[in-house]
Each structure stands twice: as structure tokens, then as C-alpha cells.
Amino acid sequence: MPLRFLVVASETPDQRAERRQAVGAASDETYAQTLADIEPGCVCDLVSCVDGTPVPSAETFRGYDAVVFAGSPIDMTQDSAVTRSAAAFMRGVYRSGVPSFGSCAGLQIATVAAGGRARTREPRLEAGFARGIVATEAGRNHPLLAGRPIAWDAPAMHSQEIAELPPGSLVLASTRTTPVQAAEIRFEGGVFWGVQYHPELTLGEIAAALLREKDDLLEEGLAQDEGDLERFAARLAALGDAPDRRDLAWQLGLDEEITQPRRRMTEIHNFIDHLVRPCRRETPRAVA
């Protein structure tokens, strides 16, 4: 029986349309494709946690083997109808006991839902890649990070970060500028594994994201001018199309932890292999 994933969007309809125009897919659609690439034949249903749809019942959640939260521009540092809706949805996931995973905003939603806090990052943007991620003592033997080297880089694009994890959570990886790059959160019977970075994104998508955020990147001084940014993005996209090009990898300072899709998606593979499959064996899911 194929694995069943519920992929959760926290982009508004306008944000989803904008990303489709720029990249070809909304963030949840990208995640569904990534899961299908990792787990051929899997079932991926898409749902929004910010469009006013009522939170599904625990029984509905239990019709899935896992719930996966895609990234988005949602600002979990603010108290708004949108952020309250996202947090309420995540609390429903926790209470169902179904394993969950999230990237970037997904980690922030899971944190706030369980009583933690997010904050605006300073400096504001981590754009393109998180460099020099290192496992904490708790993360060195944690299955989420199995197979990662002593230090690694990962695709990243965010302006908020975790200020305080909920009680009993584990910080699994950090960088010098972002204290929580990976975490485990346990709350009301549920288990969430998440990362601040984006293992699901291709280099082409990162290149497109940089171009979408060009005004902010220029304002932050991360590129001298638009042409500089366009050249960098073009090299990234070219490396994505030809991941064995050593010249581009060298110019961009990237190694196989990013250039090779299997390595880049390590945490998603580990979530499926070390949390989803074992939970499925222990508690077979009813089909929704």
C-alpha cells in the first residue's frame, strides 16, 4: 500500500499564484513533487491551513502516514487571523499523533503552535544557502540528520527564525547566525521534525527565488546590482541542470550535499525512513 502524505500550504492564494508564475509551482506543489520523486507511487493530497478551511478531524489526519508543511512567506512573529489559523491546524496534527515534518515556515508554525516563539532575523535575510550547518550534541545521533557530514550547507530563504522552542524540544543543528536550523518538537502526543532550510528545493527554484527577492537582496547589500544577482542566479540554474559541472560548483562554493539531489534531500529521506515507516508498522493508517 503506498504511503499517503497530506501536504500543507501556508501561502495565500495570491502568493501561490505568484510563485506558480515565477517557478512553475506553488510551494506545496513543489513539496508534493519532491515526495513523489523520493517515494514513487505515493499519494499526496494538498490542503491549505490559512484559507479558512476548518481544521480536519483527528480521524481525517490519521488517514495519512505523515503531514508535511511547505515553506511560505507567512510571518509567525505576528498575531493575525492567518497565523492563528496555521497554528490551530498544526495543533490538530499534533493531537492526531500523525508524524509531521516541515521546512522553513513549517518549522516556525510547528514551534508557535506548541508554545514557542519566532522572531525577525537579524541580519534580516538568509538567502540562497545556509552555510556551515553543524549538528548539536543532541543532533549528532538523531535519525533526522543521519548521513550528514560534520558540517554542511543547504538551500535557504527566510527572514524569520526560531527565537524559543517549546519546552522539551531538541535543537538538532545550528549555524553561527541561525541558532535553530533543525529541531524535534513533541507536543500533545505528536512528533514533528523540521528544518529552517529547504531540502525540497532544486537549485533552479533557489535561483528563481533569488530573482523574486531581488529588491530585498539589493537593499541588504547581498548583491551590488541587478546584473550581479542575475549572473549568480544563472550559474545556480545551470548547475541545477548539470550537477556534475565541477567548474560551477567550485565558483559557487557548493559541494555534493547540495548539488546531488539525494544528498540535498537527506532530511526528508530520513523522516520517511526513520519516523514515517516505523510509525506505520506500529499503527497502520486507515484510508481517509
Automatic annotation (TrEMBL):
Residues 61-213 form the Glutamine amidotransferase domain. It is an enzyme of class 6 (ligase). Its EC number is 6.3.5.2. Keywords: Ligase. One of its GO terms (molecular function) is GMP synthase (glutamine-hydrolyzing) activity. Pfam families: GATase (PF00117). GO terms for cellular component: cytosol. Gene3D superfamilies: 3.40.50.880. This is GMP synthase (Glutamine-hydrolyzing). It comes from Aureimonas pseudogalii.
